[in-house]
Write a structure and sequence with these properties.
With 306 residues, this protein is α/β, with parallel strands linked by helices.
Amino acid sequence: MAGSKKGGLGRGLDALFADAVPVALKDKDTAVKTKKKDKEEPQDEGEKVQYLSIHEVMPNEKQPRKVFDEEKIQDLARSIQENGIIQPIIVRKRGKGYEIVAGERRWRAAVKAELKEIPCIIRELTDEQNMLIAIIENMQREDLNPIEEAEGLDQMIKTYGMTQEQISKNVGKSRPYIANSLRLLKLPGEIRALVEDGTLSAAHGRTLVGIEDANLRSKVCDKVVAEGLSVRETERLAEKAKEPAKKRSPRKQKNPDLAKVESDLKEALGTRVNIKYSGKKGKIELEFFSREELERLIELLQSLDK
């Protein structure tokens, strides 16, 4: 299934927005359009800025962004009332109306500003392209919280059979970044909510994923939130929580340089790394908790020599 989707976005996101000419409104119903660079070259009818009734335009069902800051939308609405919509909204035909591909925040603000019409560029896009563009736009503008981003990436895999490599190329993020993002979906609902609202960072969430015992994970999470612990402090607490309750013989302190390498590899590979080194030899251990996780690590390691 994934083999048929090598084309990704085809012309790419830059091409998609290349001719999204700026638009300014003198009032709620009148527009002043910026002049094109090349007047002699005719533009495809579907690429022109067209004014659509705001009631014909509907939100994107594939929109990965679930949370919109109402205060910021209200600020944007006031700006639109004063200056108009600077950049057209990208839409596609859907039923008797049009579905937003990119620009839902502007549309919401336009509704609050009580505009009757909004400037749009109509595109012919597949469901897959529609979802990809929505995710990419939000990721580039850093509008998604870590959980929304992970859910959007996961949808690419489950709905369209894309590989992490294909997603990496389409969204412009490294494969370790994609893998680390997807790991957040292993968190239970209550911890996901803390990452969503910014109480915990994505790095905090990835650290907590590594604690298999649900009760221990919950206790560590509560302590992190209550004391405002940093990611490094959370990692140390997580390691300590995973140790058996019985007393252990004192362990030799690990070389700080070696510990730094372990930390860097953990971040790059998206899993716990343990390096055992003695003299001139040693070994590197990588943790995995499922067959899927093992296959991901193998695929990632195999790609290193390409």
